[in-house]
């Protein structure tokens, strides 16, 4: 079962990295495993102007070639996949990885991708409703089913999967709007925004909305993992911006410490090369861990 729970300080790699071949992606994941990163995630852009990998296929290969690092999706675009099929895929991927899988799920933020593939297009409100239905279907099937739902977006009748997952598979939602944040607090195991899209001040405010929704639903907010995607460059010539964590190793560590103190304790760092991962693992992360220990 995933050990990335609640407010534990963890660091991820991969994430928003794109433009890599399948072989380069595998090298990056194996390096992250060896360097002690906690999580390796892949984004889900099947229709893109740059080379991409299909994340679930790639993560299965990564699971077979790594020892301890957890693996996750960051985040799946729901229109690409039927949730009942995704429930089975996730069960298999979790079993292959020895319980190391975290399912990140989004409603689908880039409509042009789904239009290009001839897939379902939904209104902003419809995307949130579809996420709610999808989470319910997957958890129902993981709990033994049979799944039955005649929803506005999905229909399942007597659906089953076998075997069942050996433990609960965490679901993190990539959400931003008020209704989506409320859904995250009500149902999800974690919240996964990208800091570059909203900035730290706004991220803190939206985190409070997630926690308020969790409390309203009778849940413990501290049990939710608050993660974030971060673009990181260790380069003294680079100036940090709301979209970029940058500077010397000491300066980068200071920015990550500030983000962790703001409540984002699962930090998923976009590092494009093995050399970048090595530099951060050796020169930055020990400073952060020591400071926050």
From TrEMBL:
Pfam families: Bac_luciferase. Residues 19-238 form the Luciferase-like domain. Keywords: Monooxygenase, Oxidoreductase. One of its GO terms (molecular function) is monooxygenase activity. The keyword Oxidoreductase applies. This is Luciferase-like monooxygenase. It comes from Actinocorallia herbida.
